[in-house]
Structure formats: structure tokens, C-alpha cells
Amino acid sequence: MVTGRPVSTAALCAATALLHPGRGRGPRRGRLLFAGSAAHVGPAPTGLRSRWPASRFRPEWLCLVAALVPALLGGSLLPLLAGAVAVPLVGRRLRARARVKERDRRADTVIELCAAVAAELRAGSQPAQALRFAAHSTGALGAEEPAVLAAARFGGDVPEALRGAAGAAGADGLAGLGACWQVAVDGGAGLAAGLDRLEAALRERREQRERLRTELSGAWATVVLLALLPVAGLAMGAALGADPLRVLLHTPAGLACLVVGGALEAAGLWWAGRIVGAGEEP
Length: 282
Hints:
InterPro entries: T2SS_GspF_dom
Radius of gyration: 27 Å
Shape: elongated
Largest sheet: none
Structural class: mainly alpha
Subcellular location: Cell membrane
Low-confidence stretches: 1-5, 15-54
Keywords: Cell membrane, Membrane, Transmembrane, Transmembrane helix
Helix content: over 70%
Number of strands: 0
Organism: Streptomyces roseolilacinus
Membrane topology: Multi-pass membrane protein
């Protein structure tokens, strides 16, 4: 087992490599200057330089930064190994949360699209013109916008194109827009009135989802509190002079307790997350 100065040196080297990742800026600038058709000579634009650090930074790498503290205090590389294991797990969780936010944002733009199309129709615009204006102003159609607008402009199957665009996460409301469009074309019903009802239904579903998340926030807070209890116990032991990190990281009984406790902690978090996450599913 490695202790003392070598551990501190290794931990500080890891911190240096993590906090100063910008050694390859020259090659990246070269690839930026000569990529595609951008024949730009000279230094990169200020806006691009300001976005480089943000594009390279990933929040999950903070797990290694947090692991440096117990690694230095306990004189062991085990916390760094645990932090390295946590990086992909935390990254996966953060990406899942980002997908949920993107889905909600897309759902909001679909609601805005329905409201904008209905407003344009009442203002006297034709359906294709109203859809084109609303799509440009809201961006709700995403990558399928050219196909949908082409179908609307040249007499194609607009409902089918809208159903195809509804396959994106959070854009399922576009299938309702396609149904309203088809009913208005085939049966002569008012498209604006149908879109008003669709918008009201989508808003009600969004409000219901928000209420459910508010009710589950207390359960998530309980899960986080239970997960932090072991850390609080270690802090209390250190305050009492028991040196829990030395016991956990440098004794066979402590290592056994650390492995078993870590496994139970991970299983408990996974189980609690599954229970609370099941309540969030639509």
C-alpha cells in the first residue's frame, strides 16, 4: 500500500493534469483554421476562443477533484480510483438529465407552434403560410422542418410529415398537429379551433408533469440526504480525533468495511433512484 509523499505527489500530478488540459490548443487551432471551406488566416475569432474552455469542460470530471481531498488527507490512491470510477457514472446521469431538459424544451416549442399557427390562421394567413411562419419563429420541427414545409408548400402529405417529425423526443405533440391538419383538410373542420384544443391539452399535460416533479422533489431530497450520511459520519469521526480515513484506507478491517459499505451505498442509491424514477415516468 502506498502512503506518504509519493501519494501526495501522485495526487498533485493528477490535479495538474486535470486543471491544465489546454496543451493541445495549437493543433486544435490549426484544425479550426483549415477545416471545411473556412479559409481564415490569422488568430481565431474571440468568440471561438472564449468557447473552447466551455466545450472542453465536463462537470463529471469534478469527481476527481473531489476525490483529491480524501486522497491527500488519507494518504492513499483509493479515493482517486473511486473518483475515476464515478466519472462515467456521473456523466451518464448528467447526460440523461440533459436529454430530459431537451425533451421538455422541445415540448414547449411544440405548444408555441400550435399557438402561433392558430394566431396566424385567425389573422387571415393560409395554413401553409401560417405553418411556415410559426416553424421559423419557434424551431419546433427541428431537423424535419424542410420536409414538413416542403410538403405544405407543394401540396404533399403534411400530416405524414408531421408524424415523422413527432418521432423526436418531446415532439409527440406534432402528431396531434398532423391529426388536426388532416381533419381540417378532409372534413372541412376549423384548423384554428382544433389547434386551440390541442394547445390546451399539451399545456395541461406539461403542468401535470411539473406538479409530479414538484411532489417527487421531496423524495429526491431524502435520497440525497441518506447518501450523504456516511460522509457526515466520517467528518464527525475526524472531528472527534478518531482518524477514520486512516482506519478505512490502511487497515484490513477498514478496507473490508469500505468495500461492503460502498457496495451497500451504491445498491441503496440505485434502488431508491429506481423507485423515485418510476414515479416520474409518464
